[in-house]
Amino acid sequence: MEMSRLPVSASQRAKLISAGYTSLSSLSSVSPFDLARDLKISDNEAHEILKVASHSSRLGSSDGSHAIVHGAQTAWDMLHEEELLARITTSCADLDNILGGGINCKEVTEIGGVPGIGKTQLGIQLAVNVQIPVNYGGLGGKAIYIDTEGSFMVERALQVAKACLEDILEYNGSVRKKFQVCEVKMQPEDFLENMFYFRICSYSEQIAVINYLEKFISENKDVKAVIIDSVTFHFRQDFEDMALRTRLLSGMALKLMKLAKKFSLAVVILNQVTTKYSEGSFHLNLALGDSWSHACTNRVILYWNGNERYAYIDKSPSLRSASAPVFCDRERDPEFSFKLVNESK
Amino acid sequence: MKPENLLQQPLSTQKCTVGCPLLDSFLGGGIPCNSVTELVSESGCGKTQLCLQLLLSAQLPVSLGGLAASSLFIHSEFPFPSRRLQQLSHSFRSSHPNLFGSNDPCDRIFVHAVHSADQLLDILHRIDPLLADTQNQLPIKLIVIDSIAALFRSEFDNTPSDLKRRSSLFFKISGKLKSQAKRFGLAVVVTNQVVDLVVSPDGMNGLKVGNLSCLYSSGRRVCPALGISWANCVNSRLFLSRNEEIVGEETGLVDVGSGDLICKSTVEIPLEANKGAQKGAPKQRPGATQRLKQSTKEKHGAA
Fold first, then answer.
1. Which ipTM value was assigned to this complex?
2. Chain B residues closer than 8 Å to A216 by CB
3. CATH tag, A79-326
4. How would you list the strands of the sheet with B215-217, edge to edge?
5. B303 is a domain residue
6. Over the stretch B268-302, which tens digit does the pLDDT of each residue have?
7. Which residues in chain A have Cβ-Cβ distances shorter than 8 Å to B12?
8. How far apart are the C-alpha atoms of A7 and A4, rounded to whole Å?
9. What CATH number should be reported for the domain holding residue B130?
10. Is the CB of residue B160 less than 8 Å away from at least one CB of chain A?
């Protein structure tokens, strides 16, 4: 859009053009302060001009040329924003390390692995850890736990909550001088209260819940993590039409990404593995097929390495592929807060 | 659609005692309700025995660790061990004389035979009204399927289409069982067989299911039958194994690998179940006592 069509006074327009601002898009990235300096006008006046410019660019966006897309952000701003976002710790130092500090908000993270490797444990742990108060390096948020398999057990969640609370108190003890004011008044039961638990018994229920989440989260804005354990189970039965399954799944993935972005929360999807037959041999693969692998921002695979559990970053736009041992024994790793309940003989 | 308040339900899941205090304490009280528990072992380790015992102990009042409920036994292995059940019910009755009076505990056990996986699925769909029946003095709270492996190990070929049909049936059956378990608060127990593991130890990393370093039974390395798809279908897995070592007293050894974590526990339990069950242990040498090694892997870590 040409500067001549901008509804500002003639003198302002002349100043703009003579200072080199000949098109609307040239105003899109300038700050009011810079504009005021360039045009030798007051900050307020510059601010007004920019407001008018952004307004008319939105109106003119239909003609397509040089439009400033509403809601667009510069990569610089995004970087700043990302640095401000806290991450949800996995309570395992090595895993946090390869994840760059923990599970990122605004992203969809998929965690897959064989049965019994600890997916549900990790899910419960994250649902608890997201509630660690801000003063202790957490997010102080709430969690939504969508259980499709029935593996979530209240007593286990309570144990994890207790262990997490102990860690908070320990931390509190070590930095007491710094944070004398904030005493922990949380109870393990509070962690459970801040976990919204949905038990899902069919794929249609699963889709319904995910459609409902947007409304639910806009009423409960402090939700900072959505955990789906597992996305797979109901989609591995009853599907004759695989194309339909792919459509449903990608629709669901889109909704989850939108949620993550809009409410800046972490979406964690747990997935099962399956054996894939190709070229005469069987391989282990995450379930739901190739098209699903596009659905998540990050992909972490848990696997056995001898008798130890390892995690491997399979896909991530920002992290390098790496693997690290997880759920390591407490003796070996004092920072490990996955409290083991029944370790002794 | 509303989230459940986790604090409104009791803070621990209801459990059904298996009738053995030590095993109970490792399972955190017994077999949990609202989920599917799998019992895996080679033949002759006492799966059916444990199942029959469960059918009886489910009738105990909640104060004694039972579910105060009837139970449904679906069997695919023949014949139904009715004589053994009679014996057990007799001793069960004499150990709880005031509970049953003139009632026979066997009256509260429903038994159904199945011959194929499709038939099992069909039955599961038809028992909804039976489970929902609240008029019944003792509603059904326990379903035992003995065994799931027998249904799947014969009928299906090793072709891609059959394998696909098989795993789709796994998920249908388990989906139905889980939704019933949730809806009616049932404890569901399925039994499974084992297969010998023929892969070299270092080549099986990816395929290793469960958190025990290796499962041995009768000195052979084994793993649960039905593969990885079925392993996705159960919530907890309990591994029983036998170990033909001769020890001084009659004890069983239970290995509990608990909670998807790396905790392993071993406990020696006197196997009461073994008393009078000598014919169930054909390999036993005369005069020698038998040591049973039972390993459990529980996915929840509630233990």
1. 0.78
2. 3
3. 3.40.50.300
4. B194-196, B220-224, B215-217
5. no
6. 444 444 433 333 333 333 333 333 334 344 444 33
7. 154-155
8. 8
9. 3.40.50.300
10. yes
